[in-house]
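Q: How do we represent a protein-ligand complex in a form that can be generated token by token?
A: Start from the inputs.
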Amino acid sequence: MNELTSLSVAEMRSGLLSKQFSCVELVDAHLSRIEATNEVLNSFITISSELARSAAQNADSVIAQSGEESPPLTGIPVAVKDMLVTEGIETTCASQILKGFIPPYQCTAVSRMCKRGAVIVGKTNLDEFAMGASNENSSFGPVRNPWDTKRVPGGSSGGSAAAVSAGQAPLALGTDTGGSIRQPASLTGIVGLKPTYGRVSRFGAVAFASSLDQIGPFARSVEDLAVLLQAIAGKDERDSTSVDEPVPNYSEAIAKGENEALSKLRVGVPKEYFIDGMDPAVEDSVRKSLGVLEKLGATLVDVSLPHTELAIPTYYILNPAEASSNLARYDGVRYGLREPADSLQEMYARTRAKGFGPEVKRRIMIGTYVLSAGYYDAYYLKAQQIRTLIINDFKAAFANDCDVIAAPVSPSTAFAIGEKADSPLQMYLADVFTCPINLAGLPGMSVPCGSDADGLPIGLQFIGKPFDESTLLRCGHAFFKQSSFDIRSMARKQATEFAI
Ligand code: GLN
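Then emit the structure tokens for the protein with glutamine bound:
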């Protein structure tokens, strides 16, 4: 990383306001970094250099005119997962079926951050339609983890996570349906937040599993992350599932963590989140982190979430069911790819057969099966009933025992590219600690908390009450400042490792 690409967002902001560098210089530094590293990392599908440069010029005139009064993200580069539609910029969802699709409208989260001055530097790689936990399901090839390029960055928002981790952008947007922000954040040593279901509008987020999907931010620190969350949170008339809850000042919530540490905070530790088969280095780091929280004044409380072991089977019925119906719209008529054929039926079949990759087809088949007459009650309905039990587990823990829950994010550190690619079931297990949070609609955040013997990052997960992102940020920030894990010094090591 060069100097400009390793700064925090606050440092970028003050450098811009004090005219140490311009928005054009800042954006150019990131575009050069992307150019120099994308061939190795493959984190971007589309690099929007021209649009970014003109947005940066515009941002420079906003700063010249308004100075301190300019919006908080003015001139700050942001990478956007290619699952969010961007007006005038190709949106692929890493699928061949959307090839050439240039959306005529803007995703609300993207337009909100741009209104606050953010500059889109490009669209990041992902597992096709966000289905996966390694980024190997992308039809544009796998993303490589900046800490070890033979390994996956996690998924599905692996491109966004790798981009932030490697200094291609200080901030990024991702989506999280079963762990796709938190798990890649954990595997690449950065911070990632899945907000409460309804906290951020999903207008313009390509629908995958609509009762689970959320948009959220990635950053290299909790403070930086709060600035992007602030920009995108809040009710949107165009998404009826977004909720009209007041949006607190997240930076103030963080400052509170600094002043009062975590005294009076009860942190629940769910016993079901420490299981056989998890990497001992992960368990060790998470347990040590619990000690750090205690030192910060928090009280640790043992809690039980008894239906945790049913989360994966429940998720992998509901998720494909919703996906199969959401993906019915890709019929060769309205978007992207169309395969010529003699009849309409044949055109649908040929377009879908060619346009979708194997994991997407697998989910469509499973989803169609569990929703079909005769199987609906046995699978879909039963899964919905178990979902309620999982929701109630969290409700009981928050009502009786704790204010926030601390847990691992991923059962392992970054695995090798190809290691799990032939076993969908192995891959699905990567979601064991993240998908219950989506089923319950709760906010969850991954914060770097250590590394394994190979120097690969490990994340600590904070899980909160509905709409209580503030507590997650407060805990995350207090922890981050206290922990010995220094992302910046590690990042210098990372940069020399892949020799750029
Ligand atoms: N790994 C999970 C899946 O494949 C999570 C995906 C996501 O959150 N988008 O469904």
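The longest helix spans residues 377-400. The chain is about 40% helix and 10% strand.
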